[in-house]
Design brief:
Elements lengths: L1 H11 L5 E9 L4 E6 L6 H4 L2 E7 L2 E6 L1 E2 L4 E6 L5 E9 L7 E8 L9 E4 L3 E4 L4 E2 L3 E3 L8 H11 L6 E5 L17 E4 L3 E7 L1 H16 L3 E7 L12 H15 L5 E6 L10 H14 L6 E2 L17 E4 L6 H8 L3 E5 L3 E2 L10 H13 L3 E2 L3 E2 L29 H13 L11 E5 L7 E5 L6 E7 L4 E9 L2 E5 L6 E7 L1
Parallel strand pairs: 1-8, 12-13, 13-16, 16-17, 17-18, 19-20, 20-22, 21-23
Antiparallel strand pairs: 2-6, 3-4, 3-7, 5-6, 7-8, 9-10, 10-11, 14-15, 24-29, 25-28, 26-27, 26-29
Helix pairs in contact: 5-6, 8-9
Length: 493
């Protein structure tokens, strides 16, 4: 496949092509080439289509895909402003030797580009704006009726979160037993699925939701595989897994808010070996033309995040104290994407108090990492029914509305971090100290040199901020209100 890619790139500069109209698109947004072609056989895997996009000496080869009804698309996200040209290359005559050009315009203020790694342990948008992930979990929200999905978007528009963890495949679990309206492959529950024939309607709906998140400034952390399955999607054969990745990359990699999560609880997928995961991650990294952020999420077994194809650590644990160790071992940003959920379900992971979840967010930031939210509140308890038949709409799975007390307090922390406050391990000029459930009346600082520091007392639960009038230096005792959930913001003057 690498040899084919090299040949295709070489072809880009030597063949004369048929031209298309001149158009424009913002930098980092999507320029789409739509072509009409034959749909005989299986166009999803039998038709090869590529777009060769170039600007001066910069060349990017992008794979196209079949979108049903005889339509083929190539999606390109220009990394630079200015004039771009492209050629199409295909084994289908109607799709081959097409050419066009367009202008990549300066991005609007709300368009900051894709997120990437910055300064080893942090994130930044492509325009240089710092990004700190304050995520939430919405595993199966794209598989819900449109009215519920739209309600979810309305809730997200309130600005609590800037990242959403979400699955491609539907999820089978308690309080999520209804069949989705669309499936990713042709076939049905009774007769099975054709893993080499995709359902364009399903992916069009997925794209709609990703675009809606992008319009709100929210990153889509897309989970590609997971074990909670009653349909057989988790049992795809090896060849089908790679065909699926090819199709996903071709359709979605140009969306600037896409992150790749190879799996949720990868170690619970019994048909996959560790070598399978390593190979799939390598394949994703090689085939994604935009090198979007990539990670994988554990159940019990920790993945080796030193893998250079992994961009950041994404873990399930309530051990916030391990963040500094993982930073040291892996030299990558650390996100605890599942530390437990605020809620009242029968399992310990989904019955955190709001105080506990908010506290884990503050502790995570203070230790140099990031934490994600989830909510699992039952509201219609039916003791005369089997628990899995309960049709409650839990945010963590279906979306809808938020019932908990943590979101507004997480948003409070987000504003503080986005105002420029660093964390204790990276920044000695503007950082946080968090006391959790402790309630000291004094705190001792040992500031070095003659530097003066401003101390702000933050009540993380009541969301109040009070800056002390006195400046501090050297050995200093700072008075505290003797109550839990207090943080200090320390700023060098």
């Amino acid at each position: 496949m690498k040899q084919l890619t090299v040949i295709l790139i070489l072809w880009c500069g030597v063949i004369q092509w048929e031209a298309f109209a001149h158009q424009s698109v913002e930098r980092w947004k999507i320029y789409e080439v739509t072509l009409k072609g034959a749909d005989k056989g299986n166009p999803f895997v039998e038709t090869e289509l590529y777009g060769c996009f170039y600007q001066g000496t910069d060349t990017l080869l992008v794979k196209g895909f079949y979108d049903g009804d005889g339509l083929y698309r190539i999606r390109f996200s220009p990394p630079n402003e200015g004039n771009w040209q492209y050629h199409t290359i295909s084994n289908q005559k109607n799709l081959n030797r097409k050419r066009g050009s367009f202008v990549a315009l300066p991005p609007q203020k709300s368009n900051r580009g894709p997120v990437s790694i910055s300064d080893v342990f942090s994130f930044t948008y492509a325009d240089g704006t710092p990004y700190a992930p304050f995520g939430t979990t919405l595993y199966a929200w794209i598989h819900q009726p449109d009215s519920l999905a739209q309600l979810t978007i309305h809730t997200l528009s309130k600005g609590y979160f800037n990242k959403v963890r979400m699955c491609v495949f539907p999820k089978s679990y308690w309080w999520n037993q209804r069949e989705p309206e669309l499936y990713p492959f042709e076939g049905d529950v009774q007769s099975g699925w054709n893993f080499v024939r995709f359902n364009p309607l399903f992916f069009q709906n997925l794209e709609k939701r990703i675009a809606q998140l992008d319009s709100l400034g929210i990153e889509a952390d897309l989970i590609l595989f997971h074990p909670y399955d009653r349909w057989g999607f988790s049992k795809m054969d090896s060849v089908s897994r790679y065909n699926y990745l090819d199709y996903i990359i071709a359709r979605l990699s140009a969306y600037k808010n896409i992150w790749w999560s190879m799996a949720n609880e990868f170690d619970f997928l019994e048909h996959y070996t560790m070598a399978d995961w390593d190979n799939l991650i390598t394949y994703l990294a090689e085939k994604d033309p935009y090198s979007k952020l990539r990670s994988i999420h554990n159940g019990v077994i920790m993945y080796d995040y030193s893998n250079p194809k992994i961009s950041h650590v994404s873990v399930q644990t309530n051990d916030i104290s391990s963040i500094p160790l993982w930073r040291k071992n892996y030299q990558k940003p650390v996100i605890i994407d599942e530390c437990g959920y605020e809620g009242n379900v029968p399992w310990f992971w989904g019955q955190l108090s709001p105080e506990t979840l908010v506290s884990r967010f503050w502790e995570g930031i203070a230790k140099g990492g990031y934490v994600s939210h989830g909510e699992t509140y039952l509201t219609h308890i039916r003791t005369n029914q089997r628990v899995e038949e309960n049709d409650d709409v839990l945010w963590w799975s279906k979306g809808g509305i938020l019932r908990g007390k943590s979101p507004e307090r997480i948003a409070f922390l987000r504003k503080i971090v986005e105002s420029g406050c660093g964390n204790q391990v990276d920044n000695d000029e503007d950082y946080l100290v968090y006391f959790g459930t402790n309630q000291p009346v004094l705190h001792l600082f040992e500031f070095s040199g003659d530097a003066q520091y401003e101390i702000t007392i933050i009540d993380t639960w009541n969301m109040t901020i009070h800056t002390l009038e006195k400046s501090y230096s050297g050995y200093s005792l700072v008075p505290l209100p003797q109550k839990p959930y207090i943080a200090l913001r320390v700023r060098k003057k």
